[in-house]
Write a structure and sequence with these properties.
Strand order of the largest sheet: 4-3-7-5-6
Distance between the termini: 122 Å
Structural class: alpha/beta
Order of helices and strands: EEHHEHEEHEEH
Number of domains: 2
Number of helices: 5
C-alpha cells in the first residue's frame, strides 16, 4: 500500500498520452520518424551504374544529338544553295514568271486638251521649269493640277508621261505636244496625266505642228529593249 499523495514508480501519470509523445530519440523528432539512408535504399534500388558511367553516357548522348543537328543544318544550307543556283528543282519553289509589261497597242483619238487634268513635275535642277511649262500648257487649254518637283531614276528623256488605263488617250495627246517622251503606266483609276520633265526637255512642240490624228502611245525603251519602264521608277 502506498502513502497518500505519492505515485508508484511504474505508474503512468497520464494514461491517455500517445506513445509518440515519448521523448525523442535518434530516429524520431517531435513524434515523427526520420527517413534515413537505409530507408531510401530499400525504396530505390541501386541500378548498379556508377555515377561516372552515367555522366559518360549523358555526354555521349548529347554529342550524338548535337552532331545530328549540325548535319541537318548543313544539309539544309546545301539544299538552299542548290535551289538558288538552279541545280535542284523543288516543286512549288520555282520563282513565278513576271508578267511581261507591254506598251498599250490601242489606237486612240486625239482628245481635247481641256478634257482631263494634267500634273506637271520638274525632275531637273533647272528652277521654275515645271511652272513655266504648266503656264505654256495652260495657254493651250490644258486643265493644270499639281505643279511640283519629282525625282526619277533614269535620264536622257525630255519627259515621262504617266497615266492609268483611263488616261491612255490623254497621255497620247501630251506625247504629241512634247517631243521625245516615254510613256509609263501606273494604277491610278482616274483620267489624269503626269508630265515629269527631264533633262532633255526644251520647249513644247509648236501648236500648229501638233499631230492631232488618231494614233498610239510611244514607248521607245520598250521597242528597243523588249521591256518598258515601270511607273514605280518615278518617285
Amino acid at each position: 500500500m502506498t502513502e497518500s499523495g505519492t505515485i508508484p514508480p511504474n505508474a503512468n501519470p497520464n494514461p491517455e498520452r500517445d506513445p509518440e509523445d515519448a521523448p525523442d530519440d535518434e530516429y524520431h523528432l517531435q513524434g515523427r520518424r526520420i527517413i534515413t539512408e537505409d530507408d531510401l535504399d530499400e525504396v530505390f534500388e541501386d541500378d548498379g551504374v556508377e555515377p561516372s558511367e552515367r555522366y559518360l553516357r549523358r555526354r555521349i548522348l548529347h554529342g550524338v544529338v548535337l552532331t545530328l543537328l549540325v548535319a541537318l543544318l548543313g544539309a539544309a544550307v546545301l539544299v538552299a544553295f542548290a535551289v538558288s543556283r538552279g541545280d535542284l528543282q523543288v516543286p512549288g519553289w520555282e520563282p513565278r514568271p513576271e508578267a511581261r509589261i507591254t506598251c498599250p497597242p490601242d489606237t486612240y483619238k486625239y482628245p481635247a486638251n481641256h478634257s482631263f487634268v494634267t500634273n506637271v513635275y520638274n525632275s531637273t535642277t533647272q528652277g521654275g521649269l515645271a511652272r513655266q511649262t504648266s503656264e505654256a500648257l495652260a495657254k493651250r487649254g490644258y486643265k493644270i493640277g499639281v505643279v511640283d518637283s519629282k525625282r526619277i531614276n533614269y535620264y536622257g528623256l525630255s519627259a515621262i508621261i504617266v497615266s492609268g488605263p483611263k488616261g491612255e488617250a490623254n497621255a497620247m495627246n501630251l506625247q504629241r505636244n512634247i517631243a521625245g517622251t516615254e510613256y509609263v503606266a501606273d494604277e491610278r483609276t482616274d483620267s489624269s496625266v503626269d508630265v515629269i520633265l527631264g533633262s532633255q526637255y526644251k520647249n513644247l512642240v509648236p501648236a500648229k505642228k501638233v499631230n492631232k490624228k488618231a494614233g498610239t502611245l510611244s514607248c521607245p525603251r520598250l521597242e528597243q529593249q523588249g521591256t518598258t519602264p515601270s511607273a514605280n521608277a518615278t518617285k
